[in-house]
Amino acid sequence: MEIIPAILVKKFTEIEEKIELIKGISDFVQLDICDGKFVKSTTWPYGKTDENFEKILHEEMGRY
Q1: Poorest-confidence range of 8-17, 33-42, 52-61?
Q2: Rg of the chain's alpha carbons, rounded to an integer?
Q3: Cβ atoms of residues 32 and 9 within 8 Å
Q4: CA–CA–CA angle 57, 24, 17 (5° rounding)
Q5: Would you call the peptide bond into 45 cis, given omega within 30 degrees of 0 as the criterion?
Q6: What pLDDT, on the 0 to 100 scale, is given for residue 4?
Q7: Residue 45, domain extent
Q8: Are 47 and 25 in contact, with CB atoms under 8 Å apart?
Q9: What is the Cα–Cα distance from 45 to 50, expressed in whole angstroms?
Q10: What is the count of structural domains for the chain?
Q11: 64 in any annotated domain
Q12: Which of 4, 27, 32, 46 holds its CA 20 to 30 A away from the CA of 20?
């Protein structure tokens, strides 16, 4: 059985920081995103425009 860590962040830089923490422990990470519709809180990328979000969606970045 494999456990895949999940992270919730407010800023893109936190994603990179959290991934560094699990390097060598897990090959995958689950990035949870809250848009404020199904839960009251929001996470990255909601709240402000972020070019990194578009790059990840188009698989231009995100694979380490």
Answers
A1: 52-61
A2: 12
A3: no
A4: 55
A5: yes
A6: 93
A7: 6-57
A8: no
A9: 6
A10: 1
A11: no
A12: 46
- For residue 14, what are its two tokens? 């936190």
What predicted TM-score, i.e. pTM, was given to this entire model? 0.64
- pLDDT tens digit string along 32-52? 888 889 988 888 887 677 788
Please measure the distance between the N-terminal and C-terminal CA atoms of the chain and give it in whole angstroms. Answer: 22
In a domain, 39, yes or no: yes
Asked if the structure places residue 22 within a domain, the reply is yes
Residues paired with 6 in a beta bridge:
30
Q: Are 41 and 34 in contact (CB under 8 A)?
A: yes
The H-assigned helical ranges of the chain are 12-22, 51-57
- pLDDT the model gives residue 44: 82
